Please model this.
Amino acid sequence: MTQDLRLQVHSIACERGGRWLFEDVSFSVQKGQALYLQGNNGVGKTTMLRMLCGLTPCIKGDIQWRGQSIIKNKMLFNRDLLYWGHLFAFKDELTPLENLQIDAAIAGFAVEKEEVQTALNNQGLINKHNLAMKFLSQGQKRRVALARLQLSRASLWVLDEPLVALDHHSVNRLRSLLTTHLAKGGLLIFTSHQPILLDMELIYFRLGL
Model:
């Protein structure tokens, strides 16, 4: 099995309500590259990201990771993937510290408590480690998600509107995390209604007209 870090999308399509949202979409992203998925509301950006993560089936075409279909190689693909969707899948009754430790365990790696605390501190959550998630604001929950990015060992990051509810300082922290991820040879695919300025060249891909 090839170890080449590459996501290859071959002629995928999506139909909704009897009409094509998109069809015959193909592109490739390799290590160190970032693809900025653009398009108006309703053209299928979130649906495409879910397809790329194996959460929504492709009715046409195929998506390959490391040279193999993500459907046939789910275990490896899920190990290498971090998906930031509209919902973060945090447990409201657990603390940020507990959520991130469990998240790491599910992803297949262990983190020391001190490492999680440092990640939370770096995102401006010094006094929030042991407060249940249900008591945090949306902006604070998004900063917990930034700490998740900092701790992640995944090669492929797929982010759907990551700038929503982030203040200026958090936007700068996100930009730093993304730049570091790409500099280490990671891959990034994201959508955003606000521009994300990275110290790397972006691949622009637009859905719809």
Remarks:
- The longest strand covers residues 19-30.
- The longest helix spans residues 168-183.
- The chain has a mean pLDDT of 93.
